[in-house]
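Feature request disguised as a bug: please show the residue count (258) next to MBL fold metallo-hydrolase in the output. Example input:
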Amino acid sequence: MRAILLGSGTSGGVPRIGNDWGACDPANPRNRRSRVSMIVEHAGKRVLIDTSPDLRNQLLAQDIGALDAVIWTHDHADHSHGIDDLRALYHRSRKPLPGFGRGYSLQSLVSRFDYVFAGGDGYPSIVDLHDLADDQTICGMQVRCVDQPHGPVLSTGLRFDADGMSIVYATDFASVTDDMVALYSGCDVLVTDCLRYEKHPTHANLEMAMDLATRTGARHTVLTHMDKSLDYATLCAQLPNAIEPGFDGLTIDLEQVA
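Example output, currently without the count:
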């Protein structure tokens, strides 16, 4: 099993429009961050997590032309508004892509993008929608989930297990709950929300991300959803060996971590 970080940035990306790099060194390509999404691969199957507005460029950069399923963590624009890019995958496979999400995500997505799921006016449905259960098998992997507090709404945290290895994807949370710790405990890789140094009302900051890593006993932790205040090289110098900042295109091989 392995994971590919397609995007590692916050909703505005890095740099922000106006060529605003903040504290990030523009000379370091690992500071150029598109909006968050990730792929989990196992036994030749690929599961996409979230349809970032930058999805087209992300898939082109990784030379990925086929997916086997997609899971949405929630309906915010930076996690869903690249949904139309799934149409190109339909044209290649000629069949709808299985799509999964919790009720609070799917209700909004179907309302905004009904044509994606129902088709119409001569266009086919490109996603076959399913409710995401607490525990189910997707593409040969055990996928378990937990609802995370994300300010006034919820996001879905995910744990993937296969062949004795596990990876957690926990982004867009504002506090660490006991249910999150219980599900994520003992994972090989934790990919976690880490917006900035300072506290934020709807996202984890660096302190909270490191607290989650400690409380779950994750073997290795990767930070994602980072804004312009978090310079890659600076973070590398500050963090312990078991925690690293993510970057667009980072590939995580779980066998090497385990």
